[in-house]
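Can't paste images in this forum, so I'm doing it all in text. The chain is below; anyone willing to post the predicted structure tokens underneath?
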Amino acid sequence: MAYFMENMTVKDMGEALTKTKTVIIPVGVIEQHGYHLPLSTDIYNATEVPKRAGDRLNAVVAPAVPYCYSGGELLGTVNISPQVFSLLMMDICSEFARMGFKNIVALLGHAGTDNRIALKNSLQMILKRNPHLNDITLSLVEVWDLSPTWLSYFKMEPEHDFHAGEVETSLMMYWKPELVRDTIEMDEPEISMMMRTDQDWFEMIDKKVDHRFIIPKVTQRKEIKVGVMGFPRRATKELGEKICNEMVNGLVDYIELLNRNVF
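Text version of the structure:
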């Protein structure tokens, strides 16, 4: 069964460690998700899956880390620099290793190229800088990788479904329908198309001198007002349920694999 850490006592933690050596750390972000989804959408991406796995999941589930790096700049978005986020995750994971956990899983509910790189690097650095931790596994699990259906929406051609699009809206309609607004706003058609074509298009890259030695300044394009990168009007609760079930099954299978291979 899943043991949810925020509801546990010291005694409960000790008992849980006799039954599992696996801990899951959900990671989300506070970030704009258009006008129809809450700022906490990516937190739900990371927390709802282990919550719904329930008795099938033999792991401790840590409280969610609600802040990381978005890269966006629209109102409501809270950016934590990738370096700070990396150090935070290194400390959190190191503490769980100190407690005696052997499998430490970062369950990422927010994408973003810079953010994913920072998290992966932080996990790698723990192992590099702590050779005595040779009996633990560190995992980076991105929730969409647990769902073949969700992954297929990333690969749609010619335009993909990314941020606040059909998939995320469908999931929120299934998880928290009371938080989904009825009115869906989009950016201008050409801007929306570009964001669906390239998830990093929102970044404006500027160099005062055009030379390969110059570090570019990266900001969000000023013409973006809403920031939806997909097709939210196509969303359905049924699609959300299907993707959720795939993620739950995928997470349970992966945790079972880890539990079978505890050193």
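The mean pLDDT is 95. The domain at 2-260 is CATH 3.40.50.10310 (Rossmann fold).
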